[in-house]
């Protein structure tokens, strides 16, 4: 802790009390839907034996990460909209650690899900053998480990900075760039390191996903029947939509020249991938998925039978 600043002030999204109240209501509703959707998805998959497959195993962890990701950011944002904008030095860096950790983990988990879809469509006969329980656990543990290392290096380097002047963070949560901007020491080396880590996380996972889907597409185009093509496309549609939304906002925010950056646009993009996307993912993977809908019906029927309704 090399700082004369005991805490930070999060500027938030707006100074208008009316808009703050409106944002509080909207963000609270989104967070409640996020909790309901992701916890519901986890419970449905756990309770229904027909969903105990590799695809839904990965989806369980995606829901867990989205739930955790939203919980790291949204409750503090809601509190800041109504009360004090202060956040302690330790709380700020704790929030930053889990934000980077969960964000990186989600990137590589989406890669694991793409690999699963590749095996399911390109090697369907060998799918049960290839996607063994051991491999599935490895494809889930890997993203968590990479995310932890990425975040640990980030936060350790950031914690060595000196903060001796302004303590006003021009953001609604403790992201790396706004915190770097407050340092009164040279941050060039740390910025390079952070951009390398962020670039590796985004590009390595995105290349894996892209390569998987190129192979999937080439395989699907070889199918003779239209129904076979439609079934294969529907299998990947939800994941592809989730990937497009997540990576689109992440790349827009982090992989662009500093001169083209705009605080307002960055904050809108940040709201989208920290608060909105964790709500959208369970909707994307459930509303477009007949297996999840049928599993929900079966779980509800079992609960009603158990309660004697």
Automatic annotation (TrEMBL):
Query: Where mainly found?
Result: membrane
Protein's membrane topology: Multi-pass membrane protein
Keyword Acetylation listed:
no
**Which Gene Ontology cellular component terms are annotated?**
plasma membrane
Name the Gene Ontology molecular function terms of this record.
Answer: G protein-coupled receptor activity; olfactory receptor activity
Q: Where in the cell is it found?
A: Cell membrane
The UniProt entry, under PROSITE patterns, shows: G_PROTEIN_RECEP_F1_1, G_PROTEIN_RECEP_F1_2
Query: What does this protein do, in the record's words?
Result: Odorant receptor.
Q: What is this protein called?
A: Olfactory receptor
Q: Which organism is it from?
A: Aotus nancymaae
